[in-house]
Design a protein that fits this description.
Elements lengths: L5 H10 L1 H5 L3 E4 L4 E13 L2 E12 L2 H21 L7 E10 H4 L11 E11 L2 H8 L3 H5 L4 E9 L3 H27 L3 E9 L3 E3 L12 E14 L1
Antiparallel strand pairs: 1-2, 2-9, 3-5, 3-6, 4-5, 7-9, 8-9
Length: about 230
C-alpha cells in the first residue's frame, strides 16, 4: 500500500469536511482506513391497528349492574357490526367490578351507586384506515347510551422483514458513495472492505425519536458502518 501524498491528503480532508462534520467519515492515517456510515430511512404506513373501547356502568345492586353491562355490551357490539367489525376482529374485555362501599370514606354522603363495572372490547384490523375511521365515530356510541371511558387507537408497523434487504442495500451503497467521495477528493483509491457492521433497525414516528402509537405513519431507519482500505 503506497503512502498518500501529504498535500493531497490535506486537500481531501478539507473538501470532505462536510462528511467529517456530520460524523459520516472518520479517517485513520495509521492504517490508511476510512470509516463511513450509510443511512437509509423510509416513511411507511402502519399495517396493523387496534382500538380499546371501554365503558363504565354503575348500579346499586349486582342484578341491575348485570343488566346495564349486558345492555352496554350489546349496544357496543351492534355498533361495531355496523362498522364491519365482528368475529375474531372483536375481542371482549373481561368485566371488572368495584364495590364502592368498601372505598367510601366516613365523610362520603353516600350519593354514589354501590357497584361500578368496567368492560368493553378490543378491536383489531390490518386495515388501519378503518380503525382510524372507527375512532372518529365513537360519539355514536355515546348517543346509544354507552358511557365510554377509553377510545384509544394504536397503530404499529410489523412488516419490517420486507424492507430489510432493500434498506440494507441502500444504506451500504450510501456508505460506499461517501467513502468514494473522500478517496476521490484525497487523490487516493478506495480499496476493499476491512470490516462492516449493521446497526439496529428503529421504528419511530415521522417527526420524532420515539414511536407515537397514535400515528398512522412510521419512520423506519437503519445505519450501517463500513471500514474501507485506502491506497
Amino acid at each position: 500500500m503506497r503512502l498518500l501524498n501529504s498535500a493531497l491528503l490535506a486537500l481531501g480532508i478539507a473538501t470532505s469536511g462536510w462528511f467529517v462534520g456530520n460524523g459520516i467519515i472518520t479517517f485513520r492515517t495509521m492504517d490508511q482506513v476510512v470509516d463511513v456510515r450509510g443511512l437509509d430511512e423510509r416513511i411507511v404506513m402502519a399495517n396493523e391497528g387496534s382500538i380499546d373501547l371501554r365503558y363504565v356502568v354503575s348500579a346499586g345492586n349486582l342484578k341491575d349492574l348485570s343488566s346495564q353491562i349486558e345492555a352496554s355490551q350489546r349496544s357496543l357490539e351492534e355498533f361495531l357490526a355496523t362498522q364491519g367489525f365482528s368475529g375474531t376482529a372483536v375481542q371482549k374485555v373481561s368485566v371488572t367490578i368495584s364495590d364502592n362501599l368498601q372505598n367510601r370514606s366516613s365523610n362520603d354522603p353516600g350519593l354514589y351507586a354501590r357497584y361500578t363495572a368496567r368492560a368493553g372490547a378490543l378491536v383489531f384490523s390490518s386495515d388501519v384506515n378503518r380503525i382510524q375511521a372507527l375512532a372518529q365515530k365513537t360519539d355514536q356510541l355515546i348517543a346509544r347510551g354507552v358511557a365510554l371511558e377509553s377510545t384509544m387507537p394504536r397503530f404499529s408497523f410489523t412488516d419490517l422483514n420486507s424492507l430489510k434487504p432493500k434498506m440494507l442495500v441502500a444504506a451500504t451503497q450510501g456508505a460506499r458513495e461517501a467513502a468514494e467521495s473522500f478517496a476521490r477528493d484525497s487523490g487516493a483509491k478506495l480499496g476493499g472492505i476491512k470490516s462492516a457492521s449493521q446497526g439496529l433497525f428503529t421504528i419511530t414516528s415521522p417527526n420524532s425519536d420515539y414511536d407515537d402509537v397514535s400515528s398512522l405513519q412510521k419512520r423506519v431507519r437503519v445505519v450501517t458502518r463500513v471500514s474501507y482500505y485506502m491506497r
